[in-house]
C-alpha cells in the first residue's frame, strides 16, 4: 500500500534549498576524494574532514561508509532525499549524519548517542562504532544485529512432510499466491502456507504470471505434479493486479480468498484465527494481520520495516499474538495487501480489483477497501495473527512513478481517503494490539523479575538504580524499570543488554491505562516492587500509583531518597530559598502558601499527601532510608511505618588518591549538577565575593549549574558535564583541588557527590545539615561549618580561607584503608 507516514520525524535541512549549493559542495568533495584516493596525505585528509564537518580520521569515515552505509535502505527511508535526486552516499556523508539519519537498518544514531553520552558531535558516528563500539560490544541499535527471518529453500524432506492443500468440499477459502520472481522467497511462502495448514479449511493456489525465472517455474511445476497445491501457469504476463483478478474471477469460484504475497510467510494456526474475525461479523469485507513490514499493521514499530530480530522468532511471536490479542481487531479504512483476506460476498457486490486505474499496483487494495466501505462493509486488522513479510527496500524511479500514479488515482476516486487515513493514524487504534503483544513478550521473558519504580530525571536516584540493577544482574536476577514522567505517563524499560525491545510500553497514560498496568504487573509476578520516586507526576497520578502498588500482593520496598512523602517540595526547602534548618511539619504547611503562582504539578493539601503515604506505608511496605537524619524525619511524620536505615553501597570504581596541585590560591571544587538546593546561589555569591575582595581563592565546578553564565561571570571555572563517575574521578586529578566543597543547603538523605570526595580522599567541607554532615562528621580530613554561613558569603569566604587545609591533607595521608569509610 502507499506509504502513509513521513519517515522523517524532524526536518533539519530543506533539500530544495540545498540543491543550488550541493553542486559546488559535491564538486569540491569529488575533487578532494579523487586526490586523496590517488595520493593520501594529511592536507587533503584535513580538507575532507573540514568539508564533511568531522574530526574522525577520514580513513575511518570512508571505511565505515563501505561497511555500514546502505544506499537502497537510505532512499527507502527518506523520501526527501529520494525526491531531490541527490546521491544518497553523498547526502549522508555531507549532511545526513549530522541530522541523525539512519545509514542502514542496523545503525540507530540517536540510540548510539544515548548510550555514548560523551560522544563529541563532530565524530562521525558509524566510524566510531566500527572502530570502538563494535569491538567493545556496544550495540548499534536497541533491538539486535541480526535479520529476523531469512527466506530459504526447503529440502526434499521438508516437502515430503507437508500436507497437500487442494480444494475440497469443506474448503472455506483459497489462498492465492501470485508468483513472478524471487526463488527463495516464493518457495518459502508456498512451503509455509502448506506447512501451516494443518487441518485448516483452505486450499492453496499458486498463479505463475509467466515468470522469467526458469528454475522457479520448474520447481513449482514439479511440486504441483505432486498434488501439493493447485497451480496455474500463465503463458502471458498479465501484471500483478490483473493476475489477481484472473484468480478472483476465474480460478477461485465462489470461495473467500486470501491474497498472500510470495514474500509473506504464515505460521500454524494463522488461518483459523484470521477467518474468525470474518465469522464474527458478516459485514467484514477484508482482514489484514499484523506483520513486521506492513505500514499501519507493522509490529513492533509502526509504519516501519521491522526486519531486525526480536528475542523470539516470528512463528513464536504469532503464538504470542494469539494469546495477547485473542479475538481482538481494529477497524481501519484500509487493509494491506501482503496478506489480505477478502469475503466473496464483497467481491460479488463491488467487483474485483481496479486493474485499469491500478494496473501496476500501488493502491489497488486501498481502493478495494474504500469501495467496500461505500457498500456498507468494513475492514479490520487482526491483532491475534502475525505474518512475516520480507518486502523490498529497493526504490527505482519506475517504482516511484508507479506509486505516484497509483496515489493520484486513489485520490481522484476517493477524495476523502487521505483524511480518513490521517485521522486513523492520529487515533492509532492498532497501538492497543501492539501494546498487548509487547506486554505478552515482557511477561514471558521477565516473570519474577524485580520491578523498579523511578523518575525520568538524572541525579542521585539514577546513580543508585544503575548500581542496584547491576547488583541484581550480578546475583542472576532480572529487573524491569517503570519510569514515570510527563505528569501522567509511565514507561516500562528493560536493561539495554537484555535485548527485549518493547517500544509500545512507553508513555502509558495513567489516567486511563492504570488497569492495563496493574494487570501487566500481575502477569509479571514480580519478586519485589522497589519504589524509588514518583517525581514528574501530578498529584492525581502520584496518588493513583500509590494506591495501585499498595494493593498488590507482592513485597514492596520504598527507598527514601528525598522527602516527597512529607512535602511536594522534595528537598524541604522554603520556596523563596531562604536558608533554614530541617523544618518542623508546621513549617512545611506554612510554606505551601508561598507556592502561589509557582509551577508544581505535584501540589496537594499536605494532610492529604501525608495520609496517602501513611496508608501506603502501613499496607506492609518496607521503608528504607540511607541515613539517621532521614530516619528521624520520616519516623517523626510516619510513626507507624516500618522504617530501617540502609546506607547505600560503594558504587564507585577503584581510583588513586587525589592529587593536590597547590599554588597561591585556595582551589575549591564543587562537583555535580547544582541548582539552588544544591548550592548554586551559594557558589555564585562566594565567587563574586572573591572577585570583589580579590581573595586568594578560586572555584571550579566539575559539572554544570542552573545558570552557568552567572557563575562564569563571577569567575567560576566550569569544566562541564562528565559521563560516568569514573571520568569525574579522573578529572579531579586534572583540577587538583585543595578542598572539596558540598554546598547543598537542604538536609540530604545521602549525597552521592560526597561519595566522590570520600573515594578520592579529598579534604571536604559541608554545611552542618542532613546526611552530608552525618557522613563527614567522623572524618579527620573533613569539616562541618554552620549552615548560617550559607546566607553570609563574606563570612563563609573567610571561614574557608581560615581552614587548616594542610593539616587536613596530613590527616588524609594517615588514612590506611578505604574500607573503614562508608561511601
Description:
With 823 residues, this protein is of the alpha/beta class. 41% of the residues lie in helices and 15% in strands. It has 32 helices and 23 strands. The strands form three sheets. Strands 1, 2, 3, 4, 5, 6, 7, 8 and 9 form a nine-stranded mixed beta sheet that branches. Helix 29 links the parallel strand 21 and strand 22. It is elongated and about 100 Å long. The N terminus and C terminus are likely disordered.
> Radius of gyration over alpha carbons?
33 Å
Q: Which bin fits the share of residues in helices?
A: 40-55%
For the largest beta-sheet, the strand count, sense and barrel status come to: 9 strands, mixed
Alpha plus pi helix count: 32
Number of strands: 23
Name the structural class: alpha/beta
Indicate the low-confidence ranges by residue numbers. 1-19, 817-823
Write the layout of secondary structure elements.
Elements: H1 15-38, H2 42-52, H3 58-68, H4 71-77, H5 79-84, H6 88-94, H7 109-115, H8 125-133, H9 156-160, E1 173-179, H10 183-195, E2 202-208, H11 214-225, E3 230-233, H12 240-251, E4 256-260, E5 264-265, H13 270-280, E6 284-291, H14 314-324, E7 329-332, E8 339-342, H15 344-350, H16 364-374, E9 378-389, H17 397-413, H18 417-427, H19 430-446, E10 450-454, H20 460-474, E11 479-485, E12 489-493, E13 508-509, H21 514-524, E14 528-531, H22 539-550, E15 556-559, H23 585-591, H24 606-617, E16 622-625, H25 628-637, E17 642-645, E18 666-674, H26 680-692, E19 697-705, H27 708-713, E20 717-718, H28 725-735, E21 739-742, H29 752-760, E22 764-767, H30 770-776, E23 782-785, H31 793-802, H32 805-813
Parallel strand pairs: 1-2, 1-4, 2-3, 6-9, 10-11, 10-14, 14-15, 15-16, 16-17, 18-19, 18-21, 19-20, 21-22, 22-23
Antiparallel strand pairs: 4-8, 5-9, 6-8, 7-9, 11-12, 12-13
Helix pairs in contact: 1-2, 3-8, 14-19, 19-21, 22-24, 26-31
Amino acid at each position: 500500500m502507499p506509504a502513509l507516514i513521513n519517515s522523517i520525524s524532524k526536518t533539519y535541512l530543506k533539500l530544495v534549498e540545498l540543491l543550488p549549493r550541493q553542486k559546488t559542495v559535491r564538486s569540491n568533495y569529488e575533487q578532494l576524494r579523487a586526490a586523496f584516493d590517488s595520493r593520501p596525505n594529511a592536507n587533503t585528509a584535513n580538507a575532507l574532514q573540514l568539508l564533511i564537518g568531522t574530526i574522525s580520521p577520514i580513513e575511518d569515515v570512508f571505511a565505515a561508509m563501505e561497511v555500514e552505509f546502505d544506499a537502497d535502505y537510505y532512499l527507502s527511508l527518506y523520501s526527501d532525499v529520494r525526491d531531490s535526486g541527490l546521491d544518497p552516499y553523498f547526502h549522508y556523508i555531507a549532511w545526513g549524519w549530522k541530522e541523525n539519519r539512519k545509514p542502514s537498518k542496523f545503525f540507530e544514531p540517536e540510540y548510539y548517542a544515548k548510550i555514548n553520552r560523551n560522544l563529541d558531535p563532530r565524530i562521525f558516528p558509524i566510524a566510531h562504532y566500527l572502530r570502538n563500539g563494535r569491538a567493545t560490544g556496544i550495540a548499534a541499535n536497541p533491538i539486535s544485529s541480526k535479520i529476523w527471518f531469512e527466506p530459504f529453500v526447503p529440502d526434499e524432506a521438508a516437502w515430503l512432510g507437508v500436507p497437500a492443500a487442494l480444494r475440497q468440499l469443506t474448503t472455506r477459502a483459497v489462498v492465492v499466491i501470485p508468483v513472478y520472481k524471487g526463488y527463495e522467497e516464493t518457495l518459502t511462502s508456498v512451503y509455509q502456507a502448506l506447512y501451516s495448514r494443518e487441518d485448516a479449511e483452505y486450499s492453496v493456489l499458486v498463479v505463475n504470471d509467466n515468470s522469467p525465472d526458469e528454475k522457479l517455474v520448474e520447481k513449482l511445476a514439479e511440486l504441483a505434479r505432486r498434488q501439493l497445491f493447485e497451480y496455474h501457469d500463465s503463458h502471458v504476463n498479465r501484471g500483478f493486479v490483473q493476475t489477481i483478478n484472473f484468480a478472483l474471477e476465474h480460478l477461485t469460484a465462489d470461495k473467500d480468498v486470501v491474497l498472500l504475497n510470495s514474500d509473506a510467510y504464515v505460521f500454524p494456526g494463522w488461518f483459523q484465527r484470521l477467518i474468525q474475525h470474518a465469522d464474527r461479523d458478516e459485514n467484514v469485507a477484508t482482514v489484514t494481520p499484523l506483520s513486521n513490514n506492513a505500514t499501519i499493521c507493522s509490529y513492533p514499530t509502526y509504519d516501519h520495516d521491522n526486519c531486525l530480530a526480536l528475542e523470539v522468532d516470528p512463528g513464536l511471536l504469532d503464538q504470542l499474538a494469539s494469546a495477547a490479542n485473542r479475538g481482538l481487531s481494529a477497524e481501519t479504512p484500509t487493509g494491506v495487501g501482503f496478506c489480505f483476506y477478502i469475503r466473496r460476498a464483497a467481491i460479488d457486490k463491488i467487483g474485483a480489483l481496479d486493474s485499469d486505474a491500478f494496473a501496476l499496483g500501488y493502491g489497488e487494495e486501498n481502493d478495494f477497501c474504500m469501495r467496500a466501505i461505500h457498500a456498507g462493509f468494513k475492514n479490520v486488522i487482526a491483532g491475534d495473527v502475525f505474518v512475516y513479510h520480507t518486502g523490498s527496500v529497493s526504490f527505482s524511479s519506475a517504482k516511484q512513478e508507479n506509486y505516484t500514479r497509483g496515489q493520484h488515482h486513489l485520490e481522484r476516486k476517493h477524495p476523502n481517503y487521505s483524511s480518513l487515513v490521517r485521522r486513523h493514524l492520529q487515533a492509532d487504534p492498532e497501538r492497543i494490539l501492539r501494546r498487548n503483544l509487547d506486554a505478552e513478550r515482557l511477561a514471558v521473558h521477565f516473570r519474577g523479575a524485580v520491578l523498579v519504580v523511578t523518575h525520568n530525571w538524572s541525579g542521585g536516584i539514577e546513580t543508585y538504580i544503575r548500581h542496584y540493577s547491576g547488583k541484581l544482574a550480578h546475583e542472576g536476577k532480572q529487573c524491569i524499570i517503570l519510569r514515570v514522567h510527563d505528569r501522567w505517563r509511565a514507561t516500562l524499560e528493560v536493561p539495554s543488554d537484555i535485548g527485549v525491545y518493547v517500544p509500545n510500553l512507553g508513555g502509558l497514560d495513567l489516567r486511563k491505562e492504570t488497569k492495563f498496568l496493574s494487570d501487566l504487573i500481575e502477569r509479571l509476578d514480580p519478586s519485589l516492587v522497589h519504589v524509588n520516586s514518583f517525581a514528574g507526576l501530578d498529584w492525581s497520578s502520584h496518588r493513583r500509583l500509590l494506591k495501585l502498588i499498595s494493593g498488590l500482593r507482592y513485597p514492596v520496598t520504598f527507598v527514601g531518597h528525598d522527602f516527597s512523602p512529607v512535602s511536594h517540595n522534595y528537598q524541604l526547602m522554603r520556596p523563596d530559598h531562604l536558608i533554614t534548618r530541617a523544618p518542623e511539619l508546621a513549617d512545611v504547611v506554612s510554606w505551601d502558601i508561598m507556592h502561589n503562582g509557582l509551577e508544581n504539578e505535584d501540589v496537594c493539601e499536605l494532610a492529604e499527601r501525608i495520609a496517602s503515604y501513611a496508608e501506603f506505608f502501613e499496607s506492609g511496605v518496607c521503608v528504607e532510608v540511607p541515613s539517621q537524619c532521614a530516619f528521624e524525619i520520616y519516623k517523626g511524620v510516619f510513626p507507624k511505618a516500618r522504617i530501617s536505615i540502609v546506607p547505600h553501597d560503594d558504587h564507585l570504581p577503584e581510583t588513586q588518591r587525589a592529587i593536590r596541585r597547590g599554588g597561591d590560591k585556595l582551589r575549591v571544587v564543587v562537583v555535580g549538577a547544582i541548582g539552588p538546593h544544591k548550592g548554586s546561589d551559594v557558589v555564585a555569591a562566594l565567587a563574586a565575593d572573591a572577585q570583589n575582595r580579590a581573595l586568594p581563592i578560586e572555584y571550579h565546578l566539575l559539572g554544570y549549574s542552573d545558570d552557568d553564565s552567572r557563575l562564569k561571570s563571577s569567575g567560576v571555572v566550569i569544566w562541564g558535564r562528565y559521563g560516568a563517575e569514573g571520568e569525574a574521578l579522573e578529572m579531579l586529578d586534572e583540577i587538583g583541588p585543595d578542598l572539596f566543597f558540598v554546598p547543598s543547603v537542604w538536609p540530604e538523605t545521602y549525597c552521592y557527590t560526597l561519595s566522590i570526595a570520600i573515594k578520592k580522599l579529598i579534604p571536604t567541607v559541608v554545611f552542618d545539615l542532613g546526611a552530608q554532615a552525618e557522613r563527614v562528621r567522623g572524618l579527620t580530613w573533613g569539616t562541618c561549618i554552620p549552615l548560617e554561613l550559607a546566607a553570609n558569603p563574606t563570612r563563609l569566604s573567610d571561614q574557608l580561607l581560615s581552614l587548616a587545609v594542610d593539616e587536613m591533607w596530613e590527616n588524609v595521608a594517615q588514612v590506611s584503608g578505604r574500607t573503614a569509610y562508608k561511601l
